[in-house]
Amino acid sequence: MEFFEAVGVRRANRAYLARAVPPEMLQRILEAANLAPSAGNLQSYEIFAVTNKRKREDLARAAREQIFIAGAPVVLVFAKHPALAAERYGKRADSLYSIQDATIACAFASLAAAAQGLGSCWIGAFEPEEVRQIIGAPRGVTPVAMLPIGYASERPKAQERRELEDLVQRVE
Known about the structure:
The structure is a single chain. By secondary structure, the chain is of the alpha+beta class. It has one domain (3-167): NADH Oxidase (3-Layer(aba) Sandwich), CATH 3.40.109. 41% of the residues lie in helices and 14% in strands. The protein is built from seven helices and four strands; from the N terminus they run ααβαβααβαβα. It has helices spanning 3-9, 23-34, 53-62, 86-89, 91-115, 128-135, 164-167; strands spanning 45-50, 74-80, 119-120, 142-150. Strands 1-2-4-3 form a four-stranded antiparallel sheet, sandwiched between helices. Helix 1 (3-9) packs across helix 5 (91-115), helix 2 (23-34) runs antiparallel to helix 5 (91-115) and helix 3 runs antiparallel to helix 6. It is globular. The N and C termini lie far apart (35 Å).
């Protein structure tokens, strides 16, 4: 799928078929996330690929009972890992750069899923400490986004967006 087509078809999918994501498709998604830009190319984030049904159910509960998350055959959890950038960036590694790194990788993963005909939904509403414990992340590695991925069982219509004239502030 061409890039702008993938951007155009990407939606927030909240219903998935009970069909596994083929390993090669998941691999392409993870490779795309790995190619995302990051501060100083330090990639101060971790990706946890959760396929275990019980853990996906636990993640759904930790995400304020967004039960649809458990219906996706895989949930990627993107977590900031500021220690990987702290030497170069100090406190900003924790307060900004590691968060940006993780969320850019999540955006790349979302587009890679769409490009392969899969659905996903960005999840930001969850209890980070609870999610950290579910995925077994060490202290200092904090979840910042989750991305359930699977074959969408419905195709939501496109949401209205702000007009570019309202969104873009041109500075000359």
